[in-house]
Amino acid sequence: MQAQTTVLVAGGGPAGSMTAALLARESVSVTLVEKDAFPRYHIGESLLTSALTMMDFAGVLERVATEGFVKKYGGFFRIKQGEVPGHIDFTTSKPYRHSYQVVRSRFDEILFEHAGACGADIWDRTAVTGVTFRDDRPVAARLRGPDGAEQEIAFDFLIDATGQTGLLSAHHFRDRRAEPAFANVAVGGYFRGARPYCDVHGTEHPGAFSMEALTDGSGWTWAIPLHDGRLSVGVVLHRDAYQQRRRAGESVEAVFTEALGTSPDVTRLIRDARRDGPVRVWRDYSYFAGTYAGPGYRLAGDAAGFIDPLFSTGVHMAFLGALSSAATVCSELRGEADPDTAESFHHRFLSQAYARLAITVAGFYRQLRNQHDVVLPGVSGENLQLAFDLIQPIVSGDLDLGSDTLDEDTIHRAMRYTTDMMLEAHEVQTQNRVAKFMAGMDDERMAGRFAAIDGRYIRMKRGRLGIARFNRLDAAFMATRRQVIRRITAARR
Ligand SMILES: Cc1cc2nc3c(=O)[nH]c(=O)nc-3n(C[C@H](O)[C@H](O)[C@H](O)COP(=O)(O)OP(=O)(O)OC[C@H]3O[C@@H](n4cnc5c(N)ncnc54)[C@H](O)[C@@H]3O)c2cc1C
Fold this sequence. Notes:
Blueprint: E1 4-10, H1 14-25, E2 30-33, H2 50-58, H3 61-65, E3 70-72, E4 74-78, E5 86-89, E6 99-101, H4 104-117, E7 121-123, E8 127-134, E9 137-144, E10 150-160, H5 167-173, E11 177-178, E12 184-192, E13 197-198, E14 204-205, E15 209-213, E16 219-225, E17 230-238, H6 239-247, H7 252-260, H8 264-269, E18 274-283, E19 287-288, E20 293-294, E21 297-299, E22 305-306, H9 314-334, H10 339-369, H11 384-395, H12 408-424, H13 431-447, E23 456-459, E24 466-469, H14 472-492
Parallel strand pairs: 1-2, 1-10, 2-7, 4-15, 10-21
Antiparallel strand pairs: 3-6, 4-5, 8-9, 9-10, 11-19, 12-17, 12-18, 13-14, 15-16, 16-17, 19-22, 20-21, 23-24
Helix pairs in contact: 1-4, 1-9, 9-10, 10-12, 10-13, 11-12
C-alpha cells in the first residue's frame, strides 16, 4: 500500500465502497480499507428505489442486476391491526419501478470490488486502529493488515464510513447522541420454506416485503424474502420491553418466538417453515453524530447516524452520505468551493435528510404504538393508505436525490405531511433538528427538485461531480421541466 493517498476511506460497507467508487471515477486517488474479510454477514437487506439511481450513477447497477436478487416492488405495512395494510407501491416510482432485497454479504462484496474496478486501492482485512490530527485536521491513520503488521498512511481527506463503530464520532470526538424516540432492540433470524405474502384480496405476492405492528403495540416485525430461498424475519421491540423479558429469565430465542407470536401475518408466513441459522440481536442503533463534516473529514452512513429501520432507509442514507462526501471533497479539491462551504453543505445536507426521515418514522411509530385509534394526521381507518401515498417520495429516497421526475405538488404534499407529523410527534426531541428541518424546507422550495443547501446542490455528472451553485438559468430550466411533467401527469390522469 502507498504511504500517501488523497482520500482514505475507512470502512467497506455501502457508504465506504460507494464513496470510493465515486471518487475514483472522478480520478481522485483513493484508498479504501475494510477491517473484515469479504464476504461478511450484515443486516440491512431491503433497499429503496433511490439505491438504483445511485448504483446507476456509480456504474454498478448492471452488475448488481445480474446477481438475481429479489426485485422489490414496494411493501405492505400493517401499521395498525384491524386495518388494511398500507402499500408503498414502487411500480409508480420513477425513474426506477422497483428496488432489490439483497443478501448483504454478496451485495457489499460487489460494491467493494466495484470500487476497486473504478480505480480505488482496496484492502480488506485491514483496520484503521488510530487517527493522527494536526490542529483540527486528521492527517494520517494507523492501519493493521491481515498479518498483524502495522503501517501509517497519510492523506488529505478522511471519510469515516466505519458504520456503527463510528471511528471519529464514537471514538475520537465522542459526540454521538442516542435518539431516545427509537430506543429499540431488534432480534432477527432466517427461515426456509416460508409461504408467500398474501394481500387482503387473497392475492399472493411472492417476494414482497412486509412489516406488521405487534398486536400489543410493543414493536413491529419485518419479513423480507431473499433470492437464496430464505425469509429474513425480525422483530423490533422497545428496549424496556426487551430488557424486562430478558431480566425475567427469557432467552433471546424465547423473546423472538414470543414476539413473533403477536405478529399474525408473520405467524402465517412461517407456519410450515424451519429456522436457518442463529438468532441475532442489534442494540442501541438510533443515534446521530454531533457533526457530519469538519476540516479534512466527512462522516457517511451509519458512522454519521442511524434511524430505526422501519422504512428500510439505512443503505439509502449510506449512499446519500457517500454522494455528498464525494461531491464536497471533489469541489474542495477543484477549488470550486472553499472548505467551510463544502463542510457546511455536507453537514446540512445530511442533517436535513436525517431530520425528515426521523420525523416521518416518529410519526408512524406513534401509530404502531397506539393500536386502539388511528392517530396519523389527516387520515382515518378508511383512508389510511393516503398517509403512505403522501410519504412515498420520502420513503423511496427519491426526494433526497432530487429525482427530476417528482412533480412539485407531490414534493410539497410530502413535505406538508411531514410537517403535520412533526407537530404531532413530540418524541423527536431536539428543537434544533426541527429548526434545521424547517430551514431545509425553504431551501427545497427554492430549488424545486433539488435538495439544495445555501443555493447549492449536488451536480451528479460524471467528471464534474461536485456541489454547484443553483443559478437562475437552472431555476428557469427546472420550472419549465416541472410544468411539462405536471401537464403530462394531468393528461395521464
Ligand atoms: C435491525 C436492522 C435492520 C436493518 N434493515 C435495513 C434494511 O432493511 N434496509 C436498509 O437499507 N438498511 C437497514 N438497516 C441499516 C443498514 O444495516 C445500515 O444502515 C447500512 O449497512 C449502513 O452502511 P454503512 O456502509 O454505513 O455501514 P456498514 O454496512 O456497517 O459498513 C461499515 C464497515 O466498516 C467496517 N469497519 C468498522 N470499523 C472499521 C475500522 N476501524 N477500520 C476499517 N473498517 C472498519 C465494518 O467492518 C463494516 O464492514 C438495518 C439495520 C438494523 C440494525
